[in-house]
Specification:
The structure is a homodimer. By secondary structure, chain A is α+β, with helices and mostly antiparallel strands. Chain A is 35% helix and 22% strand. Chain A is built from five helices and six strands; from the N terminus they run ααβααβββββα. Chain A has helices at 4-10, 17-28, 34-44, 50-63, 132-136; strands at 32-33, 67-69, 77-79, 86-91, 97-101, 119-130. In chain A, strands 1-3-2 form a three-stranded antiparallel β-sheet. A three-stranded mixed β-sheet of chain A has the order 5-4-6. In chain A, a hairpin with a 7-residue loop joins strand 2 and strand 3 (77-79). The A-B interface holds A 70, 72-73, 76, 87, 89, 91, 98, 100-104, 108-109, 111-132, 135 and B 68, 70, 72, 76, 87, 89, 91, 98, 100-104, 108-109, 111-132, 135. Strand 6 (119-130) of chain A pairs antiparallel with strand 6 of chain B. Chain B binds a DNA duplex through helix 2 and helix 4.
Chain lengths: 141, 141
DNA sequence: TCGTTATCTTGACTCATTCAAAAAAAGCCG
DNA sequence: CGGCTTTTTTTGAATGAGTCAAGATAACGA
């Protein structure tokens, strides 16, 4: 884990309990959704407001310390694995997320064939399917 | 445009005014969000309920007649271009969407290097950036 | 330690989307 | 063509993730 205090201080931001607790929660619960993050944070710091968690997550995301994943139809999820080029598989049934290193290499699909004049800064890839568990159980939502 | 009546009948579904109007609206307004689709449908059929439009869109999406795009932070968008392999560029600022044919070819990134036992059926790619217009105007939301 | 200012708490609010019950209309059948 | 059954639509309320705003609190530089 990166030194969060340093990251925050470097950005002239205060090192506060919610922020540290949120990063710790995201680190120990990869791909947790917001609700889960709030619950995890409250284990160490029972009185945090959901707002503080939302704020911290947003902040940490902007600082690049955590990464936000938002599969459609599911609430946002967060992970502390950043800086490498990896994507996600999402289960259509239960929303479970797993990491995937793209087969193409470092920067797959980063250059679109025709960018329509857009200034592209990120390519997001999500694989959709069924997780092992949901393949066996009869896929009822 | 595909014969929507045939598609619906083939699926044992009724050919109704909302459904036909929704497909027509999506066809003539590529990448329109739900609100825009509702407005467009109401130009031909002023009394449709939003619910009927939602239902029709969901149905047409399931039938594969239209495709749903859900960029995070923006409401769902729909397009009638289906069956080919294309992706989207989304403007972070205004939410505008444009089509992109992937540079890699027909099926980019379809096989993840390690699928974790998932049964993958779709790879979704979204390029994020700024549309030409928002690059010039000072990107204020 | 003190004061300034960023951050957190609280609680209300938004807005796309969904739910549910009753009304309407597709289309099968005679 | 007109009635009947079933699917769709209407209507209106509800949900839920996420945001907003004002006052209270706590970081941290001096």
């Amino acid at each position: 884990m990166v030194g969060i205090e340093e990251v925050l201080r470097a950005a002239s931001l205060r090192v506060t309990r919610p922020r540290v607790a949120v990063l710790s929660a995201v680190t120990s619960h990869p791909h947790a959704d917001t609700e889960t993050v709030i619950a995890a944070v409250r284990e160490q710091y029972p009185t945090v407001s959901h707002q503080a968690v939302y704020d911290s997550l947003k902040l940490l995301t902007e600082l690049g310390v955590v990464r936000k994943i938002q599969p459609h139809g599911h609430s946002a999820r967060y992970e502390a694995r950043v800086g490498d080029n990896h994507h996600h598989v999402v289960c259509r049934n239960c929303g479970m997320v797993a990491d995937v290193d793209c087969s193409v290499g470092d920067s797959p699909c980063l250059c679109a064939s025709d960018d329509h004049g857009f200034l592209i800064d990120e390519a997001e890839v999500i694989y959709w399917g069924l997780c092992p568990e949901c393949q066996f159980s009869s896929q009822t939502p």
